[in-house]
Specification:
9 helices, Leucine-rich Repeat Variant, 2 domains, mainly alpha
C-alpha cells in the first residue's frame, strides 16, 4: 500500500528516541542558549579544570548575574577553584562582598587564602586591614607575603 503525501514525522522522546538535530532532541539543542548560562552550568561541572575555566570566564564578563554563581564557587571542594572564584569576584568588582573575601582568609586551602589576600588588596578597602594584619601570622609563607602586599596596596591607595 502506498502512502499519499509527505510522510508523517512523529517526535519520540525518551530511550530509543532518534537524535535528529534541529527538533530539540540533540544534546546541543538542550544546552543553554545564553553564553552566561552555559558558563554558569560549566562552573558546577564535575571536572575541576572545567569549573576553573568557567569561573574565570564568568569573572571576565563583568556581568552582575555572575556574582551568585561566583559566590557559590567560594564553597567549592577544590582550593584552586575557590581561589579562582575569589579572583573572578575581584574582576567583577564586588566591593560589597568584602566580608566574604575576609572569610576566605581562613580557608583551609593556602591558595584560597592567598587569593583572598590579593583580592582584598586590589579592592583597597581600609576595612580589610585588620583581617589582613591577622593573616600576617598565617602558617603559609605565600599567604603571609600576599597579606603583606595587600596591606601595602591598601595603604598606598589611601596615602595622601
Amino acid at each position: 500500500m502506498a502512502l499519499c503525501g509527505a510522510p508523517r514525522r512523529v517526535k519520540r522522546t525518551g530511550l530509543g528516541a532518534p537524535m535528529d538535530g534541529g527538533r530539540g532532541d540533540t544534546p546541543e539543542d538542550r544546552a543553554p542558549t545564553d553564553p552566561l548560562d552555559a558558563l554558569i552550568a560549566a562552573a558546577t561541572s564535575g571536572d575541576r579544570e572545567t569549573r576553573g575555566v568557567a569561573i574565570r570566564a564568568l569573572g571576565a564578563t563583568g556581568d552582575a548575574r555572575a556574582v551568585g554563581p561566583l559566590m557559590a564557587a567560594l564553597a567549592d571542594v577544590d582550593g584552586m577553584v575557590r581561589r579562582t572564584a575569589v579572583e573572578a569576584l575581584e574582576e567583577v568588582g564586588v566591593r560589597h562582598y568584602l566580608g566574604v573575601l575576609v572569610a576566605r582568609l581562613t580557608d583551609p586551602a593556602p591558595t584560597a587564602r592567598r587569593g583572598a589576600a590579593g583580592a582584598l588588596g586590589a579592592l583597597g578597602d581600609r576595612r580589610a586591614l585588620t583581617p589582613l594584619t591577622r593573616a600576617l601570622a598565617d602558617s603559609d609563607a605565600a599567604v603571609r607575603a600576599a597579606a603583606t602586599a595587600a596591606i601595602e596596596e591598601v595603604e598606598r591607595r589611601h596615602a595622601t
